[in-house]
Structure formats: structure tokens, C-alpha cells
Amino acid sequence: MHKTALFPHRELEIASKYMDRFRMKIGLVKILGAFLLLTMTSGIAQQAVPSPPAKNHLTFEVGSKRPVAAQSTMQDPLDAAIDNFFLALQSGQVDLAYDRLIFGSIYSERAEDVVTLKKKTAEAMKAYGMISGYELVQEKKAGESLVRRTYLSLGEKLPLRWRFYYYKTKDGWKLVDFRVDDGLVELFDDLARPVK
Q: What phi-psi label fits residue 143: left (phi over 0), alpha (psi between -120 and 50 degrees) or beta?
């Protein structure tokens, strides 16, 4: 049996008020999120994270079976950005790691996505263990203006695969995408494909 409302216009009016309140709450949450992101990024310079070490390159001396580390004096801007990201993660500063990584990228405009990334990363670090180090596994270029770098973060229990995509603009390299997962089997498939 179908019920008919005694005051159908009143029900619509009440529903409309609830929807208006809901929309207002969503708007306030977005404003609050943007404010928090702005507040967090303004304090980035004040928080201490160890500076990245100079990149070591391994060379083999004639007749030697062991490589020797040779210090590089200049650090690539992509190395610096990713080193700072992983060093902050190693010190347990997930928020700072992402704030530095996304600064000036398209992600800095996506506050909701960044909050989710921070939360998921913190959860992953609990599940896989704190990050004790990281390794560059592969760099793949698509032309001269797009590059993907694949890293392995070394967790206490298991590693994670991180893929960073950078695009070269007139202002320098900009992060345009990144992915993190535990796809270790796929990592070997990627490495088996020839790099062009």
C-alpha cells in the first residue's frame, strides 16, 4: 500500500533545509582543509628534517672486484625532491614529506586527495613497518620532458614500490603523478621490459 504524505510540500521543505545544511558543512570542511593545508605548508621551513646526503656513484677500479664510492658535488633536482620526501618519511613526518613533495605541483590544489594520501601512507607504514631506507630501482624517460622514477622504500617488514612522474616545464621539473603500492611482482615485470 502506497503512503501519501499529508503535507508533501512540508516534506520537500524539510529535505531542502537538510540538503542546504549538508552543503554548508561540506563547504566548511573544504575551507577548513584548505586552511589546514596552508597552515601546514607555512610551517615547512620551521620543521627540521635531515638534509639529503650527497649522491654516491659506484665505480670499479681496474682489477678490483668491489666498487668504490665517488662523491658527486651537484645534486639533481629530482633527486633532491625525492630524497627529501623519503628522509621525512624515515623520520616519521608523513605530513611534511607530502607537503614538500607536492609543493608547486597539481597536487597542491587537491587538498582532499592529499589528506587521503597522508592517511594511507601512515597506515602502510604501520602495516609494513617504518621506512629505514630507499633505493632508486629504475628511471624511464618518455622523450626529454617526461620521466618516471621507480623507488623501493625499505620497510621493517616489507618494501613498497613508489613511482614518481615528472614533467619538465619552462620553470623546471614538476611532479604530475605518483603511485605507491606493494606490487613487487609487477616490479620485476617492469624491469624485464627494455628501457628505450
A: left
Give which of 58, 59, 53 is closest to 73, Cα–Cα: 53
Residue 177 Cα to chain centre, angstroms = 8
Average pLDDT, the chain: 75
**What's the chain look like in SS3?**
CCCCCCCHHHHHHHHHHHHHHHHHHHHHHHHHHHHHHHHHHHCHHHCCCCCCCCCEEEEECCCCCCEEEEECCCCCHHHHHHHHHHHHHHCCCHHHHHHHHHCCCHHHHCHHHHHHHHHHHHHHHHHHCCEEEEEEEEEEEECCCEEEEEEEEEECCCCEEEEEEEEEECCEEEEEEEEEECCHHHHHHHHHCCCC
Per-residue pLDDT tens digits for 61-104: 555 556 555 555 456 888 889 999 999 999 999 999 999 999 88
Q: Note every long-range contact of 58-66, with CB atoms under 8 Å and residues 24 or more positions apart, other chains counting.
A: none
* Residues 134-170 pLDDT 10s: 999 999 999 999 999 999 999 999 999 999 999 999 9
